[in-house]
């Protein structure tokens, strides 16, 4: 039948004897009792007696831990008894015993007055937090020790949650108990002295037995004597005597306690334990069942009961009892373990599992041959036990039986093909059979060192493995890795290639080279990785993974053509998602090579065949880009819509969104691209495409006619592009001042910039428009040839105009004829300029040809003296000679040979000249009469009329004339500003504010706009908006001359809206910036009101001192002084209030003079300075301008006089 293995029943019982506390919890309180310690070292055995006296009473109410087991724990911890008095030590022991409290103490034996007395000092420690209670020391006569336990319980009741009943009388004489406790003390001495060699024939044990038996002889009814004697027998391994004594103990307990108490149950449990140890299972079962009847909620009973059934082979019953124990005490680890043990024995069979456990124990002790025997026995009992086969293979492997271990693991894998450990060991055996155990063990030792990063120590082991077995490829590989980690690159590469070279099949070699390349790439060694991957392809050109990885490397290096070639090869030799990756790599390469049309079919294939690939989001974004690059705007838009619906949170949404916008931009779909670009920049302000998107948005706004908005976006670009485009926006808006400033700033920062020629050309044009002819000439001369080369036609137009202003007619003719040769035809303006130049040079024929080219009648233009006179007037006005021009115009107006068109032109010029001379009334008359001139001249006349109406504050006229302007002119900054001001003055404040908010941030008149806006918001009482705009104005223009009035008004608004702290902040800012400001008195008055409402005199005093430190004069501080005094007065702090009133009272010119004087008198009265108070009241009463305070002062004087007279009469 083979070996029959019995798994440790004896061990189970011994564990139980060391562990069972023979008590169960009551109300969650569990107390450990230790013997009391003698202070003078005498009569130590009395400490055990005192402990048991307390135990006898205490266990009536709470659970008490087994005292002998507690004593054993102290000895095992090598502690002396007095150390238990230290709370930290008691707390540690209590935790080990799973108790809530620990009770110990000290005593001293004294003979006083001929009587024996004990002075006892108990101490209780709470285990949870280490708190200790020292119960007051008490003296007890020897014959009245029964009172001791009641005394202790009385003091412990509150902490333990008990209400002690009257004590049980002690049925025996104390003298009869003393031998027992002397024996317990001797037992302690014996245990400490003999250590592990505890035998009953040793002298100290013989003495302990005799002392315990003496107490039994004297008082056979005392149960504790049997208890201690049984424990002595147990420690000395005198089993028969122990069981006999326990039965005596049980009988005595039954006599004392009846049959339903805990001590009886504890005794039954101990007896069951020892019968189990003796293999007397029927008796053990009987006592365990009896213990369970008496203590049905005691988990340990069911634990022992289950072990008995286990020994009897009833696994179902054993498991049920173990689970019952666990349900009663979820923290009982032993119950959980034995429940699992019973389940395993039930699953595998008791004999098989016991053999398995015995084999495992032998294996852990290093006895591998015996372990193999046990494991083989387990497999015979249970041929399907996978665990036994696994450990059988391990044991046979350890003794060198490779074939046997191989058979064991092969059998294991038949039972469980997925057993990874079995497969690993089977492969190890086969490896040892292939390379030899010595080589494999050398390799494994090297591998262990390698894993610990001890590369230099690992090298000799790998080298030994290679030496013992030259074809050991793994050894070659890890030797190479060590060299790499040690920085020996040459050795690493050589060894790695040797490893690959040992492989017999080209496909294996290729795969090894591929893995090397993959690993090198992971280490950042890109060039070496490429070399290895190329070698892999030399061994196996169809290794798709190598092509794919090489494609990735070349793509990262942006060598797109080679990347494309490898991706293309990879697509031939890979399947599923890897093929999709290869196709995606091809598409990415083609897009990067600007072959967008070739990329589109590939991207379509990817989207169709690989809709859930990891790269699908990037592929869809790439599709949007390719369509955009191919100018297929509508398809790009649809592709983006689909992408954003599928992947609303994709990291590639940014790229797809930009390229969709780009497609719409290229398709000139301005109304669609504008909101898309705005949304893009709002969502991705830090995008790599942000600069390009801002530029596109600027141009989109320009194409939509929103030049102001375009300028804002160009301003966001920054750098050279932004600077130029902002200047160009001013130029396009014909804002010559802004354009001049912006172009000059651009040329100062980028004198050789890419837009330098265009900037010079446009700056010269601006200066010419402003009448700054010489400056324009200077600017253009600096880059004349470069500008002429870059912009030949625009240069010639400018040069002709500039030469005309300087009356250099030959240059005008030369420039315009060259322009005509390039362009083929001159615009009307320049044809007329050419005619003028030819006329001035006496070339009548050339002049007539030029007039004809302009589409005009030469006779009407050249033959009329009035026309020539008008031309001279224009020239005079361009030179600023307005008075002379006005005289000539007045003379012209009286002539009868003017044509109707000339009459209107004369009226317009008369209006313009009068306007420039400030004669607005006359200018308005002339301009109104000239409004039926051609559209361009009409617009000019209307602009003058708008400004005249503005200057004269004719607000309705401002709006009327502005409404007649073309839309483009109506959007001119100066016109819009004038309309906003007119609306304000007409009472349309809301409309005015709306217009002004749009004008903020535009041009060099921003401060003026913001000031008008503040006035509007103030009129509308929109306090929040006013304060926000005021703060922004003060931040942007801290030195503005209107800053004082803004600060003053902001203080008032903040106070009116209930924002007192902001009001105080504005007032402080006012005094910091304008310490001598005209409104300081009013603001100090406002600050006084705020402080009075807040009611904080200390803060008022602090603010007052701040103003003093800033040098504010005392007379200006009167409102604040008065408010501070008032606040102290309200708090009835008269001594502190009086100085502030006195300082105000010293300034007779202050509006607070009389009221400050009155309250100063009141303070003085409270301070019992009545005479001084009367003098102050008298001065107030004499004030020439009577007010309520003068009246009140006179009333107080009368009261004080009456009181004084009454006092005198008494």
From TrEMBL:
What are the residue boundaries of the Outer membrane lipoprotein BamD-like domain, all occurrences included?
Answer: 629-700
| SUPFAM superfamilies found in the cross-reference section | TPR-like (SSF48452)
Give UniProt keywords alphabetically.
Repeat, Signal, TPR repeat
Keyword Repeat attributed: yes
Please give the superkingdom of this protein's source: Bacteria
Q: Which Pfam families match?
A: TPR_16, TPR_2, TPR_8, YfiO
Q: Could you tell me which InterPro entries the record lists for this protein?
A: BamD-like (IPR039565), CellSynth/LPSAsmb/PSIAsmb (IPR051012), TPR-like_helical_dom_sf (IPR011990), TPR_2 (IPR013105), TPR_rpt (IPR019734)
Q: Where are the TPR repeats?
A: 265-298, 299-332, 386-419, 439-472, 510-543
**Which named protein is this?**
Tetratricopeptide repeat protein
């Amino acid at each position: 039948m083979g070996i029959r293995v019995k798994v440790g029943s004896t061990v189970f019982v011994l564990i139980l004897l060391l562990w069972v506390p023979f008590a169960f919890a009551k109300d969650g309180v569990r107390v450990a009792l230790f013997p009391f310690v003698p202070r003078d070292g005498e009569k130590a055995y009395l400490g055990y007696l005192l402990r048991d006296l307390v135990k006898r009473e205490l266990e009536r109410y709470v659970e008490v831990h087994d005292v002998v087991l507690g004593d054993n724990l102290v000895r095992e911890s090598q502690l002396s008894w007095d150390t238990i008095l230290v709370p930290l030590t008691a707390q540690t022991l209590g935790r080990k015993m799973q108790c809530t409290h620990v009770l110990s103490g000290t005593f001293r034996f004294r003979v006083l007055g001929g009587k024996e007395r004990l002075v006892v000092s108990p101490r209780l420690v709470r285990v949870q937090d280490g708190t200790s209670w020292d119960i007051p020391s008490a003296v007890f006569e020897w014959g009245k020790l029964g009172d001791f336990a009641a005394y202790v319980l009385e003091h412990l009741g509150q902490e333990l949650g008990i209400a002690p009943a009257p004590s049980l009388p002690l049925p025996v004489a104390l003298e009869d108990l003393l031998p027992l406790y002397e024996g317990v003390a001797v037992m302690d001495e014996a245990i400490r002295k003999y250590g592990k060699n505890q035998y009953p024939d040793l002298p100290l044990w013989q003495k302990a037995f005799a002392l315990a038996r003496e107490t039994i002889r004297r008082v056979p009814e005392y149960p504790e004597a049997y208890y201690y004697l049984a424990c002595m027998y147990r420690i000395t391994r005198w089993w028969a005597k122990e069981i006999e004594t326990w039965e005596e103990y049980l009988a005595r307990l039954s006599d004392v306690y009846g049959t339903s108490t805990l001590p009886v149950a504890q005794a039954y449990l101990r007896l069951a334990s020892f019968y189990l140890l003796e293999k007397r299972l029927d008796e053990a079962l009987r006592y365990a069942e009896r213990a369970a009847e008496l203590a049905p909620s005691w988990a340990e009973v069911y634990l022992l009961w289950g072990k008995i059934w286990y020994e009897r082979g009833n696994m179902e019953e054993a498991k049920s009892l173990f689970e019952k124990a666990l349900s009663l005490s979820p923290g009982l680890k032993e119950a959980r373990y034995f429940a699992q043990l019973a389940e395993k024995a039930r699953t595998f069979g008791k004999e098989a599992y016991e053999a398995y456990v015995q084999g495992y124990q032998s294996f852990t002790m290093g006895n591998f041959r015996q372990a193999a025997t046990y494991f083989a026995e387990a497999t015979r009992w249970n041929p399907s036990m996978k665990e036994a086969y696994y450990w059988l293979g391990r044991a046979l492997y350890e003794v060198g039986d490779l074939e046997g271990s191989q058979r064991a693991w092969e059998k294991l894998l038949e039972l469980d093909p997925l057993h990874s450990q079995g497969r690993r060991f089977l492969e190890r055996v086969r490896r040892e059979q292939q390379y030899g155990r010595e080589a494999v063990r050398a390799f494994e030792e090297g591998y262990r060192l390698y894993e610990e990063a001890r590369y230099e120590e690992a090298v000799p082991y790998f080298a030994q493995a290679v030496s013992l077995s030259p074809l050991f490829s793994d050894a070659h590989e890890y030797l190479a890795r060590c060299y790499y980690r040690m920085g020996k690159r040459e050795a690493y590469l050589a060894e790695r290639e040797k490893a690959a070279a040992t492989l017999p099949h080209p496909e294996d070699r290729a795969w090894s080279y591929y893995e090397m390349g993959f690993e090198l790439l992971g280490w950042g060694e890109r060039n070496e990785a490429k070399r290895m991957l190329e070698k892999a392809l030399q061994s196996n050109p169809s290794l798709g993974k190598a092509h794919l990885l090489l494609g990735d490397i070349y793509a990262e290096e942006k060598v797109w053509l080679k990347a494309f070639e490898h991706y293309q090869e990879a697509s031939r030799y890979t399947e599923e998602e890897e093929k999709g990756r290869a196709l995606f790599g091809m598409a990415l390469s083609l897009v990067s090579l600007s072959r967008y049309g070739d990329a589109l079919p590939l991207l379509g294939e990817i989207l169709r065949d690989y809709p859930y690939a990891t790269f699908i989001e990037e592929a869809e974004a790439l599709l949007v880009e390719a369509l955009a690059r191919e100018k297929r705007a509508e398809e790009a838009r649809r592709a983006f819509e689909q992408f954003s619906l599928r992947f609303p949170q994709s990291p590639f949404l940014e790229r797809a969104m930009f390229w969709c916008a780009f497609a719409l931009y290229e398709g000139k779909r301005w109304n669609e691209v504008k909101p898309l670009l705005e949304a893009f920049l709002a969502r991705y302000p830090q995008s790599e495409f942000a600069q390009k998107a801002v530029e596109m948005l600027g141009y989109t706004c320009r194409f939509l006619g929103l030049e102001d908005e375009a300028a804002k976006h160009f301003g966001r670009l920054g750098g050279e592009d932004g600077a130029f485009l902002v200047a160009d926006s001013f130029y396009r808006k014909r804002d010559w001042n802004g354009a001049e400033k912006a172009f000059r700033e651009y040329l100062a920062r980028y004198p050789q910039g890419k837009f330098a020629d265009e900037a010079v050309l446009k700056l010269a044009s601006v200066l010419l428009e402003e009448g700054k002819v010489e400056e324009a000439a200077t600017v253009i001369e600096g880059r004349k040839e470069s500008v002429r080369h870059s912009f030949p036609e625009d240069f010639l137009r400018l040069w002709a105009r500039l030469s005309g202003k300087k009356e250099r007619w030959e240059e005008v003719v030369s420039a315009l004829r060259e322009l005509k040769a390039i362009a083929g035809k001159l615009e009307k303006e320049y044809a007329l300029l050419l005619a003028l130049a030819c006329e001035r040079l006496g070339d009548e024929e050339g002049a007539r040809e030029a007039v004809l080219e302009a589409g005009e009648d030469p006779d009407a233009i050249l033959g009329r003296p009035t026309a020539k006179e008008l031309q001279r007037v224009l020239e005079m006005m361009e030179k600023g000679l307005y008075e002379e021009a006005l005289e000539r115009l007045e003379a012209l107006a009286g002539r009868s040979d003017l044509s109707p068109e000339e009459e209107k032109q004369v009226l317009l010029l008369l209006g313009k000249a009068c306007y420039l001379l400030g004669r607005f009334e006359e200018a308005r008359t002339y301009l109104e009469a000239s409004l039926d001139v051609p559209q361009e001249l009409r617009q000019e006349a209307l602009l003058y009329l708008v400004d005249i109406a503005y200057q004269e504050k004719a607000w309705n006229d401002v709006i009327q004339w502005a409404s007649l302007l073309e839309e483009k002119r109506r959007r001119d900054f100066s016109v819009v500003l004038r309309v906003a001001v007119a609306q304000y003055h007409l009472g349309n404040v809301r409309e005015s504010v709306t217009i002004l908010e749009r004008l903020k941030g535009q041009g060099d008149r921003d401060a003026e706009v913001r000031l008008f806006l503040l006035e509007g918001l103030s009129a509308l009482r929109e306090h929040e908006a006013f304060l926000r705009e005021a703060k922004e104005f003060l931040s942007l223009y801290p030195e503005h001359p209107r800053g004082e009035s803004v600060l003053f008004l902001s203080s008032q608004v903040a106070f009116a809206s209930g924002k007192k702290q902001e009001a105080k902040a504005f007032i402080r800012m006012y005094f910091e910036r304008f310490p001598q400001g005209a409104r300081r008195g009013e603001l100090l008055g406002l600050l006084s009101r705020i402080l009075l409402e807040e009611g904080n005199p200390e803060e008022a005093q602090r603010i007052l001192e701040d103003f003093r430190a800033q040098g504010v004069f005392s007379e200006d501080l009167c409102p604040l002084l008065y408010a501070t005094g008032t606040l102290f007065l309200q708090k009835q702090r008269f001594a502190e209030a009086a100085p502030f009133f006195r300082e105000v009272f010293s300034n007779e010119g202050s509006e607070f003079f009389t009221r400050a004087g009155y309250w100063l008198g009141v303070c003085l009265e409270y301070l019992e300075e009545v005479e001084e108070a009367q003098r102050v009241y008298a001065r107030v009463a004499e004030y020439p301008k009577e007010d309520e305070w003068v009246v009140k002062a006179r009333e107080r004087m009368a009261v004080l006089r009456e009181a004084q007279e009454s006092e005198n009469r008494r």
